[in-house]
Amino acid sequence: MSTPSGRTPASSRSGAFAARRWIGPLLPAVVLLLGGCAGAASAPPPGAPEIRRGVEGTERVVQRGQALTAVYPVPRATAWTAMQTLLTELEIQPTTVSPGDGRLFADGFRIVRLADRRASVWVDCGTDLNGPVADAAQVLGNLRLVASPEGAEGTRISIQFDAEARARGGMEGVRSCTSTGRLEERIFQTLAERLGAG
To answer: Which of 67, 73, 109, 157 has its CA at 20 to 30 Å from residue 148's CA atom?
Structure first.
């Protein structure tokens, strides 16, 4: 509001100054609060490793031979039982079962419709004119889980997963395949739900 002379009344100016003086110190706190909310919404689930997503929907983040790990607040015997149960649910037949040193391996298992998903969801074997090679080839997976003691009562579980695509139909030779990270992510998340997060 202005007076006939065109000037803003002193009371209005002092009120606006007081409002700025009151709100000013609160702005950093408001910014921090909003930033904290945004960060919480994007945080990964507890107990699971960070799986970085590639560009354009690709997920080639796990190099061949690389193991991913996560820690759970349970004894190794408890984690071992959960690992065995999960492989049974995924219909993956172990080839090495060694509870003494925490090894649970499944070498050379066929990936056809693992968890009712096509093979290219789990492994990347490259592409050809017909699309993902993994969906047209015979894909044999190698999954290795190792449970190791962590601290007084915790367990560290490491997962290593890769595969090979063998000739079927018109395809020739054998191709090495890398993990997309989705199988490891699924295993870690399921174990976190059942065992708790470290």
So the answer is: 109
